[in-house]
# Entry
Amino acid sequence: MLCDVKDEPVRRRLLGEATRLFAERGFEGASVQEIVLAAGVTKGAMYHYFDSKDDLLHEIYGRVLRLQMERLTEIADGPGTVAERLHAAAADVIETTTANLDDSKIFFRSMHLLAPATRKTVRAERRRYHERFRDLVIEGQREGVFSDRVPAELVVDYFFGSVHHLGTWYHTDGPLTGAQVGKHFADLLLTSLGAGHVGE
Amino acid sequence: MLCDVKDEPVRRRLLGEATRLFAERGFEGASVQEIVLAAGVTKGAMYHYFDSKDDLLHEIYGRVLRLQMERLTEIADGPGTVAERLHAAAADVIETTTANLDDSKIFFRSMHLLAPATRKTVRAERRRYHERFRDLVIEGQREGVFSDRVPAELVVDYFFGSVHHLGTWYHTDGPLTGAQVGKHFADLLLTSLGAGHVGE
Amino acid sequence: MLCDVKDEPVRRRLLGEATRLFAERGFEGASVQEIVLAAGVTKGAMYHYFDSKDDLLHEIYGRVLRLQMERLTEIADGPGTVAERLHAAAADVIETTTANLDDSKIFFRSMHLLAPATRKTVRAERRRYHERFRDLVIEGQREGVFSDRVPAELVVDYFFGSVHHLGTWYHTDGPLTGAQVGKHFADLLLTSLGAGHVGE
Amino acid sequence: MLCDVKDEPVRRRLLGEATRLFAERGFEGASVQEIVLAAGVTKGAMYHYFDSKDDLLHEIYGRVLRLQMERLTEIADGPGTVAERLHAAAADVIETTTANLDDSKIFFRSMHLLAPATRKTVRAERRRYHERFRDLVIEGQREGVFSDRVPAELVVDYFFGSVHHLGTWYHTDGPLTGAQVGKHFADLLLTSLGAGHVGE
DNA sequence: AATGAATGAGCCTTCATTCAT
DNA sequence: AATGAATGAAGGCTCATTCAT
# Structure
């Protein structure tokens, strides 16, 4: 074994290829055979690192959830007015999502294919994430900075639709960078909440 | 397909059960056996009415696309200011989607599973639909009624995310009716375009 | 379909080859692939007639249990003294077993491989069979024809060991016919019960 | 195997757990992984002490055969009348078997799974054991103490069925001790040979 | 003496689809 | 218009075993 370093190349490679193939063909459309072939190992190796094909999917969900929660928490708990923080959080989740478009495609498309227990865990984690985001909206509404004509919960469902949707239309080599789309979408969100212009 | 008769109970039932099962378990998760069992017929009957399992899915896409395009055209080409028409179209697509939630779940979740040729057709049809919607936004921006800070194309991508997303969180027996959600989301859209209050 | 006759050749052939191969290599040692190959059909055909490999085994158990119970009932409820009936039943089960040696090999060797629910059913059926046999012994003991030094239950366990064991040593092309072995074993049983000479 | 040391805890533990698991789930149903896990070692360790999974099974057979041959030889070559010695040998093999029920279950259930060469060796050893037992019967028949109506060979096959069968019905926590069953079965054997009452 | 990552063959099962009837 | 037996390919997964360390 050459790797004393903490990263396990085989495991890492398997996860990478699985992500790519699940995004490309769907979870059920990508066979374990294809994944291990792409990763240059055998099935046995895959089953040494992962319990099942489902486990592979679960790991992908875990990675996404962890990353996004970390970023949201850092921004939401950081400095700035609530409008600035909500704008930053919205722009950031859009940009992060465009930077990991495969993860996003898998996320919303394959939730129903997870084993029930796993799905429950993922949904709970996702709900916590949504709630943290929603709390930002509520905070602004309480301060009177945001309109409360539409319930905060619904605003979040509305906005995250656009995140969800990115996988359907966004292309890395398209006319707009992820950051640009993020800025625009965050603007739309803030405007729809009746907040004035935010940012530089 | 040889049948011109509108009322084809077997065909209808097959399509209905397929829609339900595809939404419930995903296209690949629902077997032809399960579908024909639920419809109370045999496999032979299904293959008499449909060319393949893929054809079943294609029909569902066709039905959704046809219905939504009809409704959009009627509203967009109808009377009223552009703000009123955009608001109505937005509210209507939300309400129609909540009323046919299974169709919506299937639509966004299974696109990648269609045979390439079919997928191409569906995408083209969908693009036409988006363009008609986008034209309404452009029309408003030209008139100076809507802000043009965010490109019309992007506004449409932003908004349709929320439609796409409905299948993930909306429940018929939840606290809000589809019409209420439609009104709220249309409000958010119009507000984000800087349009004043549009209402009944 | 050429078969209007009630026997289904494919199903029958599958069961026959499965019996042969399970006896030869054990249930786990014989693959479905080998069975269908021997039967000259494909796996799909097998799964059309049987739910699983386990189901195949279950059917074999059912066949044996049904046959033996029928024969025992007919003899036990028939005419003759209790000694004659016990002798006849004992000789018959030995002869029937030698005539279906593969069934017997499978029966005692694979019980532990049945699905728990199936195993329970088989055991219950087997117990009923044993009880009917035991009742004959008890009947003779009550009449004073058989010694009651050894409990009837234990006599049955003792005797059925010899049935069980046949698969281990008996060969169709050996020096003794099944009928001869049956006569000898029935004699040993009756003698061990202290009954005088029975039969012609 | 390089180790002459008698006390090899790891090897011993592996054999013990293998015996338990083979009896519980069958040879093919118990995986090497399960065995090493139960023994608290790793696969590497197992393959250090045993050549293969088959070797593990072979060792179990060897242990049983060695033990039973030793006991039989001691009794058969010991003092007492032939009736006494046969009774003692029969009772002893029953009692020894109930005391090592797992070994017995494995013995008769897994013979067909041994590698052909190994199986041949085991069968030869078993045959020698049977022959020594049979010689006792012949000795008694020659002396005129036992009836020779049934060939000695067949008497042995008859009796060893009951030994074989113990694994199917005997339970340590049942109403009878192994010694009691041994006494009863030995009585049945002797009686069936027409020998008068033997023993205290 | 012992590890554990990796192999590769094989296993049971599922499934969309076909075709004679 | 409809049946249902049969196909054939592929799928996820398990397992005994090896080998560098």
